[in-house]
Write a structure and sequence with these properties.
133 residues; alpha/beta; four-stranded parallel sheet; globular
Length: 133
Protein backbone atom coordinates (compact mmCIF):
# COMPACT_ATOMS: atom_id res chain seq x y z
CA UNK A 1 0.00 0.00 0.00
CA UNK A 2 1.29 3.46 -0.88
CA UNK A 3 1.49 6.22 1.71
CA UNK A 4 0.73 9.91 1.17
CA UNK A 5 1.24 12.86 3.50
CA UNK A 6 -0.81 16.02 3.03
CA UNK A 7 0.94 19.08 4.44
CA UNK A 8 -0.28 22.60 5.11
CA UNK A 9 0.25 25.20 7.77
CA UNK A 10 -2.63 24.73 10.24
CA UNK A 11 -3.74 21.16 9.47
CA UNK A 12 -7.34 22.09 10.26
CA UNK A 13 -9.13 22.16 6.87
CA UNK A 14 -7.59 21.34 3.49
CA UNK A 15 -5.08 18.69 4.50
CA UNK A 16 -7.65 17.11 6.83
CA UNK A 17 -10.21 16.91 4.01
CA UNK A 18 -7.61 15.41 1.65
CA UNK A 19 -6.64 12.82 4.25
CA UNK A 20 -10.27 11.85 4.89
CA UNK A 21 -11.25 11.68 1.21
CA UNK A 22 -8.28 9.52 0.24
CA UNK A 23 -8.75 7.13 3.16
CA UNK A 24 -12.49 6.84 2.48
CA UNK A 25 -12.36 6.51 -1.30
CA UNK A 26 -8.91 5.16 -2.13
CA UNK A 27 -8.11 3.31 1.09
CA UNK A 28 -7.41 0.03 -0.69
CA UNK A 29 -4.51 1.64 -2.58
CA UNK A 30 -3.39 4.59 -0.45
CA UNK A 31 -2.98 5.32 3.24
CA UNK A 32 -3.22 9.06 3.92
CA UNK A 33 -2.16 11.19 6.87
CA UNK A 34 -2.00 14.94 7.25
CA UNK A 35 0.01 17.45 9.26
CA UNK A 36 0.94 21.10 9.53
CA UNK A 37 3.96 23.23 10.33
CA UNK A 38 1.94 25.28 12.82
CA UNK A 39 -1.03 23.06 13.74
CA UNK A 40 -4.19 24.88 14.74
CA UNK A 41 -4.84 22.27 17.42
CA UNK A 42 -8.24 21.25 16.05
CA UNK A 43 -10.00 20.07 12.91
CA UNK A 44 -12.33 22.79 11.69
CA UNK A 45 -15.97 21.86 12.43
CA UNK A 46 -17.08 23.05 8.98
CA UNK A 47 -14.52 20.79 7.32
CA UNK A 48 -15.95 17.87 9.29
CA UNK A 49 -19.50 18.95 8.35
CA UNK A 50 -18.61 19.28 4.65
CA UNK A 51 -17.12 15.78 4.68
CA UNK A 52 -20.18 14.36 6.45
CA UNK A 53 -22.38 15.77 3.67
CA UNK A 54 -20.69 13.38 1.24
CA UNK A 55 -20.81 10.42 3.61
CA UNK A 56 -17.30 10.65 5.06
CA UNK A 57 -17.05 10.54 8.84
CA UNK A 58 -13.82 12.17 10.00
CA UNK A 59 -12.79 13.35 13.42
CA UNK A 60 -9.24 14.29 12.57
CA UNK A 61 -6.45 15.42 14.81
CA UNK A 62 -4.35 18.49 14.09
CA UNK A 63 -0.78 17.19 13.96
CA UNK A 64 2.69 18.71 13.76
CA UNK A 65 4.65 17.69 10.65
CA UNK A 66 7.60 16.64 12.82
CA UNK A 67 5.50 13.69 13.99
CA UNK A 68 6.06 12.07 10.57
CA UNK A 69 9.72 12.97 9.93
CA UNK A 70 10.87 9.37 10.35
CA UNK A 71 8.12 7.85 8.20
CA UNK A 72 8.65 7.05 4.55
CA UNK A 73 6.02 8.29 2.12
CA UNK A 74 5.56 7.56 -1.55
CA UNK A 75 4.22 11.07 -1.99
CA UNK A 76 4.08 14.32 -0.02
CA UNK A 77 1.47 16.83 -1.20
CA UNK A 78 1.51 20.41 0.03
CA UNK A 79 -1.96 21.93 -0.22
CA UNK A 80 -1.40 25.43 1.13
CA UNK A 81 -1.42 28.50 -1.09
CA UNK A 82 2.14 29.75 -0.90
CA UNK A 83 1.07 33.22 -2.02
CA UNK A 84 -1.25 33.60 0.95
CA UNK A 85 0.56 31.79 3.77
CA UNK A 86 3.75 29.99 4.71
CA UNK A 87 3.92 26.74 2.84
CA UNK A 88 5.91 24.09 4.63
CA UNK A 89 8.92 22.42 3.12
CA UNK A 90 9.08 18.71 3.79
CA UNK A 91 12.59 17.46 4.33
CA UNK A 92 11.66 13.80 4.62
CA UNK A 93 11.60 11.11 1.98
CA UNK A 94 9.04 10.86 -0.79
CA UNK A 95 8.24 12.64 -4.02
CA UNK A 96 6.86 16.13 -3.45
CA UNK A 97 3.93 17.71 -5.28
CA UNK A 98 2.32 21.09 -4.65
CA UNK A 99 -1.27 22.02 -5.44
CA UNK A 100 -2.82 25.17 -4.03
CA UNK A 101 -6.31 25.02 -2.63
CA UNK A 102 -8.16 28.05 -1.31
CA UNK A 103 -8.25 28.19 2.50
CA UNK A 104 -11.96 28.11 3.47
CA UNK A 105 -11.10 29.03 7.06
CA UNK A 106 -10.39 32.56 5.83
CA UNK A 107 -14.08 33.10 5.06
CA UNK A 108 -15.59 30.52 7.43
CA UNK A 109 -18.39 30.10 4.87
CA UNK A 110 -19.70 26.52 4.61
CA UNK A 111 -20.08 26.99 0.85
CA UNK A 112 -16.34 27.60 0.57
CA UNK A 113 -15.66 24.43 2.56
CA UNK A 114 -17.93 22.53 0.16
CA UNK A 115 -16.20 24.01 -2.89
CA UNK A 116 -12.73 23.13 -1.57
CA UNK A 117 -13.92 19.65 -0.57
CA UNK A 118 -15.23 19.06 -4.09
CA UNK A 119 -12.03 20.38 -5.67
CA UNK A 120 -9.92 18.14 -3.42
CA UNK A 121 -12.14 15.14 -4.25
CA UNK A 122 -11.52 15.80 -7.95
CA UNK A 123 -7.85 16.87 -8.03
CA UNK A 124 -6.20 14.68 -5.38
CA UNK A 125 -7.21 11.33 -6.97
CA UNK A 126 -5.77 12.62 -10.26
CA UNK A 127 -2.49 13.50 -8.54
CA UNK A 128 -2.34 10.07 -6.91
CA UNK A 129 -3.17 8.31 -10.18
CA UNK A 130 -0.27 10.12 -11.89
CA UNK A 131 2.08 8.65 -9.29
CA UNK A 132 0.99 5.13 -10.19
CA UNK A 133 1.96 5.53 -13.85
Amino acid sequence: MKKVLFLCTGNSCRSQMAEAIVNARLGSEWQAVSAGTKPAGYTHPKAIAALAEIGIQHEGRSKLADEFKEMEFDLVVTVCDSAAEECPVWLGKGKKVHHSFFDPATTNDINDFRAVRDEIAKVIPQILEQQEN
